[in-house]
Design brief:
heterodimer; A: about 250 residues; 6-stranded mixed β-sheet; 4-stranded antiparallel β-sheet; B: about 450 residues; mainly alpha
């Protein structure tokens, strides 16, 4: 699948990005270009900075040095730019972060109505459309607390898609799920990838990476250690750290 | 090795719970008898006997206290005074009255003083005005409280905007002599600030206003509201003016409590958000405000408002005593409210903020639609707690010469024509029951609200 149409037009550019938490240097000299239509999987041991890196892309975390550019707009302190960029980037979190006091449908229509200024009827139509695509249109009137983890995560994906984002960020979307629910979420993500969505996924699902990704990035200690197409990455890892990591997670 | 293989061929039947666990007998067995039916050893037997004795003793004391109240309020009570004997009807022959036995509550006294208890010295001919306010209040609150009533949101807005103005006009009679220029200046300032804030939020007026736009707009709105209130109050509606010195009783209690309740919630929200703001100016102002008001007892706030404030104001400024108390109470309770709400804000996981931000919602939007609805729901018990204590604290206005329900009741004790041994007990009983009814209703409504807003979730 890695042959799928990747354009040579970069939608995200990260150059020499540095970030510190207090004294601790969490992200060290990150350089990354993401092209339209790319499906990138970011992996690495816990604490390696992979979540922090993708959270910098929509400014949930602030970087201190270097440059991040999304769709031609540079991320600075300018609140307007941040809002514009966030509108174009969808994000799915490990713990879903659905709004528990709103129904599934309201979760999906909130941002289109208030941020995109869409008419309520149109927003609901679009939301139902996406809820059908993640295969839970019949749960639209329920509250998130009444759904299973897998269903909640699919709602979260639909919610992000309702904003018609140009890029989707996935921050360990299956890590909080019971094993029997992982597949239903991955299936939705695979479908999304097949439709040509630009995706950056932080995940430990190596099967997913093999099937969907056109590039796998390995991070350790706040740096990008190695990146390659999945074939070469899994079969012929270059760095010792990558080899160690792969042997640990593919051990049994 | 043991055989580990097992295969279920038939589902185990689904059964109802054992009878001993259900119904009244089940409840009694589990919660009462289970502590006193174990005689298997000497220790257990002793404990069972002890528990039984304690249970009976508590039952006895509880019931006799309850009986005491019923006996006083109903059985031995004097219900009517057909001959107009006043104190005579509630005193025994030995005390100079006509009652033959022991006397309980003296209800004729309450009947005679009921107007004082409810309205204070509000002029007899104008009593329709507070009555109308009470009726409007009851109707409006009733409308909002009933879950299925239509246009509840709209009624809520009316109760928060139009009703206070109408009540103010009706109760005071309006026609206050206020300077027109001051009013216009206030209104213009308000409109200008609101416009500036609005444009600022859209990014038209640079970085600083982009950050502070919301606050500027809020202050502008406040100015405009004050101007509108001043304007409305300056008009002549043909009502006789009733100075607040004549107000009293339940009327004052409700005015002080409701003003405090209605003002403290929005003020508390602003202060709580301010205290968590990343902008140092807002944070420091909020912390200073909260810590000042929380650190001062309400009594000294009231004293300050009535004794010290006039010293600071320019000479000749006449600032209504009740109004001063109202402002004091509102600011005081808003500090407590702010800390309540801050507790709720802290309970919201950061994922909710991130989820809202990742969707592109602005700070104001995410607060209004995501964070505050959840935070306020969590702290409903705390909010209602503050409301209830505020309601009861209104009795403190007595010390600055305002006569609320309790003050009014106490003031009637000095009336020699009703001086009997049971007068004060009767008065205090009326007072206690009235307060209890109001506070308990608030408490029940809060429980109902919590249940209604529960959407069965973990995050």
């Amino acid at each position: 699948m890695s042959e799928m149409n990747v354009s040579d037009e970069a939608i995200i550019r990260i150059r020499n990005m540095q970030k510190w938490y207090g004294q601790f240097h969490v992200l060290r000299d990150i350089n990354l270009e993401v092209f339209k239509g790319e499906r990138i999987v970011v992996c690495g041991p816990s604490g390696s900075g992979k979540s922090t890196m993708i959270r910098c892309i929509n400014r949930l975390e602030e970087h201190q040095q270097g440059m991040i550019e999304v769709d031609g707009i540079e991320l600075t302190d300018d609140l307007k730019n941040i809002d514009t960029i966030r509108r174009e980037i969808g994000m799915v979190f490990q713990h879903f972060n659905l709004f528990p006091h709103l129904t599934v449908l309201e979760n999906c229509t909130l941002a289109p109505i208030w941020v995109r200024k869409m008419a309520k009827k149109d927003a609901e139509e679009i939301a139902m459309n996406y809820l059908s695509r993640v295969k839970i249109p019949n749960q639209a009137g329920k509250y998130p607390g009444q759904l299973s983890g897998g269903q909640q995560q699919r709602v979260a994906i639909a919610r992000a898609l309702c904003m018609s984002p140009k890029v989707m960020l996935f921050d360990e979307p299956t890590s909080a799920l019971d094993p029997e629910m992982i597949k239903e979420v991955l299936d939705v993500m695979i479908e999304l990838a097949q439709e040509g969505m630009t995706m950056i996924c932080v995940t430990h699902e190596m099967g997913f990476a093999r099937e969907v990704a056109n590039r796998v990035i390995f991070m350790d200690a706040g740096q990008i250690i190695e990146e390659n197409d999945p074939e070469s990455f899994f079969n012929n890892p270059q760095s010792e750290r990558t080899q160690l990591f792969l042997s640990q997670i593919l051990g049994h | 090795m043991a055989n580990v293989s097992y295969l279920r061929t038939e589902d185990a039947p689904i059964l109802p719970p054992p009878v001993s666990d259900t119904g009244i007998s089940g409840w009694l067995r589990r919660h009462v008898l289970s502590t006193m039916n174990d005689f298997s050893s000497l220790g257990a037997g002793t404990r069972s006997v002890l528990m039984a004795v304690l249970t009976l003793l508590l039952l006895y004391y509880g019931l006799s206290a309850l009986w005491g109240i019923i006996d006083f309020a109903f059985v031995k009570a004097v219900w009517s005074d057909p001959e107009g004997l006043k104190r005579g009807v509630c005193t025994t022959t030995a005390q100079g009255g006509v009652a033959t036995g022991e006397v309980g509550a003296c209800w004729p006294y309450v009947e005679a003083k009921l107007k004082l208890f409810i309205y204070g010295r509000y002029p007899e001919s104008e009593l329709w005005r507070p009555n109308l306010v009470f009726a409007l209040l009851a109707a409006g609150l009733g409308w909002i409280i009933v879950d299925k009533a239509p246009a509840r949101r709209f009624m809520g807005l009316v109760m928060l905007s139009v009703f206070p103005l109408v009540a103010l006009i009706l109760l005071t009679g309006a026609h206050v002599d206020l300077s027109r220029t001051g009013m216009i200046a206030m209104a213009v300032t308000g409109v200008v600030l609101m416009l500036a804030g609005h444009l600022g939020l859209r990014g038209g007026l640079g970085e600083i206003l982009l950050a502070f736009g919301g606050g500027v707009r809020l202050i502008g709105a406040l100015f405009l509201i004050i101007a509108i209130v001043m304007f409305v109050m300056s008009l002549d509606y043909g009502l006789e003016k009733v100075p607040t010195d004549f107000w009293g009783g339940l009327l004052v209690t409700l005015v002080v409590a409701l003003t405090g309740i209605v003002a403290s919630l929005p003020l508390g929200i602003v202060l709580a958000l301010g205290r968590r703001s990343s902008l140092p100016l807002f944070r420091i102002l909020s912390i200073t405000f909260i810590e000042f008001w929380r650190g001062v007892p309400l009594i000294s706030v009231l004293f300050m408002s009535s004794v010290m404030l006039p010293l600071f104001l320019p000479e000749g400024t006449d600032f209504d005593k009740l109004l001063r108390a109202l402002i004091g109470v509102a600011l005081f309770s808003s500090a407590y409210m702010a800390e309540n709400i801050r507790g709720g804000l802290q309970a919201i996981p950061s994922g909710q903020y991130e989820g809202a931000a990742a969707l592109g919602l602005s700070y104001n939007q995410s607060m209004r639609m995501i964070i505050l609805p959840q935070a306020l729901k969590i702290v409903i018990p705390g909010i209602v707690n503050t409301f209830i204590s505020l309601f009861k604290d209104t009795t403190l206005v007595l010390i600055i010469g305002l006569f609320d329900l309790l003050g009014m009741v106490q003031s009637t004790f000095t009336d020699p024509s009703w001086a009997t041994p049971v007068t004060s007990a009767t008065g205090y009983l009326v007072c206690a029951v009235t307060f209890w009814v109001f506070c308990f209703s608030m408490s029940r409504y809060s429980v109902h609200l919590e249940r209604k807003l529960h959407t069965g979730h973990q995050r």
